[in-house]
Amino acid sequence: MTRPYSLDLRERVVSRVQSGETVRSVAALFGVSVSCVVKWSLRYRVSGSAAPAKMGGYRRPILEKERDWILARIEANPSITLKGLQAELADRGVKVSYGAVWTFVHAHGKSFKKNRAALRATARPHPKAKRTVAEISRADRSRPAGLPR
């Protein structure tokens, strides 16, 4: 994640604009964009400081209020899909994204892979792997000459 420009730079830019220099000349002098100079000047006029606003922060998960219900629902029907859970939450009046449901379920250790997907992930033997070298050689000799293999 990027970080904001230093307060020192912002204050020097704003002071140049306040002294009467053009926004474009100040931007070129300090190597920042014109939009930065305009926004910093506006911020200074409105709030009295060119300091950056707070970045990031913690957001309490929206599904924590429904924690007990969701966990009970998963215990009652372990094969429920995330889309199904999302739809049931919408019926209860809690509209959340698929990603929010996924994050909640994984945070509580209730995620699992279905058996069908696990079976697909295993390696299967090649059907011709059981043939010996001698069998393959005999099969090649039986073809007429000049035909591609």
How would you sum up this structure, described in words?
The protein is an all-alpha fold and 149 residues long. The protein folds into two domains: 7-47; 58-149. The chain is built from eight helices and no strands. The chain is flat.
Output the keywords:
149 residues, mainly alpha, 8 helices, 0% strand, flat
Summarize the helices and strands and which ones pair or pack.
Layout: H1 7-18, H2 23-30, H3 34-47, H4 67-76, H5 82-91, H6 98-107, H7 115-120, H8 133-141
Helix pairs in contact: 1-2, 1-3, 2-3
Which stretches are low in confidence, meaning pLDDT under 50 for 5 or more residues running?
A: none
Number of domains: 2
- Radius of gyration over C-alpha positions, nearest whole angstrom: 32 Å
Given the helix and strand composition, which structural class is it?
mainly alpha
Q: Bin the helical content.
A: 40-55%
Estimated share of beta-strand residues: under 5%
**Terminus-to-terminus distance:** 57 Å
The counted number of beta strands is 0
> What is the residue-mean pLDDT, rounded to a whole number?
83
Largest sheet descriptor: none
Order of helices and strands: HHHHHHHH
The number of helical segments is: 8
Morphology call: flat
